[in-house]
User: Fold this.
Amino acid sequence: MKMATGNKTIYNPYNMKQVIVSLLMLTTAAAFGQVRNATDTGKVFDVREKLVQLAMQNPTYEVVDRNVNKSLYELRKAKGGWLGVVSVAGNVNEFTINPPPTAAPGGFANFYPRYNISVTVPLDLFINKSNDVKIARENYLIAEANRNDRYRQIRAEVLTKYEDYLMHKERLESQVRITQEEHTIFKSKERDFEDGIINLDEYTRASKAYEEMRLRRSEYQRNVNVAKYDLERMIGVPLEEALATK
Assistant:
């Protein structure tokens, strides 16, 4: 870096070195911040997906999943149901196999038919069974659609509840800091009041401000707990266990 001194310009290498070092530090910090943000984003994504997968084991989702299986079985049953309405009957002419003792030799050999087989097929078989299969297939597709819709509902509900939990948690952390600051101010005012530096009104205002912040902290703590319990109801495990890295 050049420095002007009177009519002369003096090159100062130490200032230039400081500038270079500062630029390197800023570049490194920015790069580290990008890597950390990418890592944090991936971790948050994994946590959210983990919560969704845990919620998929919820009994309400199990019901729609089993309805899909039930509809599939009914579809298979409808496809093979036509066998139950087709009847086959047959008989053999007894005289050609076991002629009576009094019959002349070969007397019944030319009796026809020696045996017969009959098949009974209802006239509306193919129409009815075709419709039954179509109905069963539609029920199966409806059950699958209900399952997919339920999956989207549970996913949205879990992610929303997790965002609510994070919001209430952040509010609580901020309120804890504010309450601590108010507590410090209150204790200072309390000492000043005892030493006669301030009057009762100023001490009372400090006391009320601290009490208000303390009650608000309790309210935010309650909101965090409720959001946590509501989320745990869906995922079926303690939230700390779900968020633990394995």
Notes: The two ends are 53 Å apart (CA to CA). Residues 91 and 241 are 72 Å apart (CA to CA).
